[in-house]
Amino acid sequence: MTCPFLKEGRARYCHAAPVRKLILNGPGVADGGRCASPEYRQCGLVAKHTAQQERCPHLEEVRVQYCTASPVTKLVPFSDSQLSNCTSNSYRYCDSYLLLARPHAMTPPADLLYAPNHFWLDAEESGLCHIGVDRFLTDVAGSVDGVTFATMQGTHRPALALTVHGIEWPMSFPNPMMIQKVNSRVRSDPARLTADPYGAGWLFEGWELPGRTRSGLVAGLQAAAWQAEERERLAREIHETHAPGCDGGQPVRGVARLLPRQHLVCLFQQFFSRRSWTAEE
Ligand code: SF4
Q: Which portions of the chain are predicted below pLDDT 70?
């Protein structure tokens, strides 16, 4: 699938110029200008002995792609691969796309798969995958002070540590994938994780290992029911264990910062270190 902000057009450039500069043809722009008229003969780059033609023989035209969401128009010839992310589902993780197309950053895409310790997996038909953590986790944390990636490349269970309220939370996705890269922007700006956990806060990108990467994950209605159960379980945990006497209601966003250290470690182990779908196992 191609990004809706990716457009195609034609651009021209001068073959004789020392630096190739692409100029987009478009409405209101005379295609080729002086270079496409007999006036090209006045150009200093044209050799005097060049045979007289209607347009400059150095004028070239190519098909290009460009991003209409970016403030600076960068033209890329079709033969180059720099815009390959724009022509696959990876565009959903592009900052320019997210800025314009996803006003509701907290709503998860419907086709995500979930692990019992609150990682999500976005697996495309091509095999390309993205992994992040879900809104349940970011609601509990409220804000994240640091992200340290433990696995950066190669075939591993993606692993990292989140620093929340002075405590490091080591976490790992339960299944392996071939990790291609990590989201280094989350490392320098951890607020991306809590502001947009399903988009700008993605954590790992890589390739699915058939029969392994998706193993045991849930999706759709099953995932929605589990998420609702987790919210109920969190409320029970907070009220019964961590805040006895409190008369109910859903925990506030960032509840982790209100708990004493030992309670927070316990909460983390109960919800984000899990390997099974049932709380008791
Ligand atoms: S740079 Fe981003 S917004 Fe622009 S076309 Fe590519 S994926 Fe879309």
A: 27-32, 48-51, 79-83, 103-105, 242-248, 278-281
Q: Best of 76, 88, 91 to mutate for ligand 1, by most ligand atoms within 8 A of CB?
A: 91
Rounded to the nearest angstrom, the distance between the alpha carbon of 159 and the centre of ligand 1 is 28
Whether the CB of 200 sits within 6 Å of ligand 1: no
Q: What is the mean pLDDT of the chain?
A: 87
Contact 98 CB / ligand 1 (< 6 Å):
no
Residue 87 Cβ contacting ligand 1 at under 6 Å: no
Q: Model confidence over 28-39: pLDDT tens digits?
A: 555 667 888 888
- For the chain, the DSSP string reads ---TTEEEEEEEEETTSSS---EE--TTS-TTGGGGSGGGGG-TTS-TTSPP-SS-TTEEEEEEEEESSSSS---EETT--TTGGGGSGGGGG-HHHHHHH-S-TTSPPTT-EE-TTSEEEEE-TTSEEEEEE-HHHHHHHSS-SEEEES--SEEE--EEEEEETTEEEEEE-SS-EEEEEE-HHHHH-THHHHH-TTTTT--EEEE--TTTTTTT-EEHHHHHHHHHHHHHHHHHIIIIIISTT----PPPTTGGGGS-HHHHHHHHHHHHS--SSSTT-
Domains of the chain: 6-101 (no CATH), 106-281 (2.40.50.100)
Q: How far is the CA of 121 from the centre of ligand 1 (A)?
A: 21
88 lines ligand 1 (CB under 6 A): no
